[in-house]
Design goal:
The chain is mostly helical. It is built from three helices and no strands. The model has no long low-confidence stretch (mean pLDDT about 95). InterPro entries: ANR_neg_reg.
């Protein structure tokens, strides 16, 4: 058994569990480099591709969350301003 291959694969698996997909992709690449059999090399290469896609998706999701939070904040501020203006207009009409 190739100990280096085993160690890299265990670290890659743990990185996936920790949702550190970019690190996992790098580690799976190392696994592919140290693989003795073609099937293991191909498996590791597929894991690299998967984790790069996961990383990209995770980044886009986090950006969407931040954008959504900012948009909701602006909507709340606009509603507060509209409510304040309505109250002011209503007071002016009564006077």
């Amino acid at each position: 058994m190739n100990i280096t291959h085993f160690n890299f694969s265990q670290r890659a698996i743990q990185s996936e569990k920790d949702e550190k997909y970019e690190i996992a992709a790098v580690l799976w690449n190392k696994v592919a480099e140290h693989a003795m059999h073609q099937v293991n090399r191909e498996w590791a290469e597929y894991r690299v591709e998967l984790n790069l896609k996961r990383h990209s998706l995770q980044e886009r999701y986090e950006q969407w969350q931040a954008d959504n939070k900012q948009r909701r904040k602006k909507e709340r501020e606009a509603k507060q301003l509209a409510d304040a203006l309505k109250i002011h207009i209503d007071k002016a009409e009564v006077s």
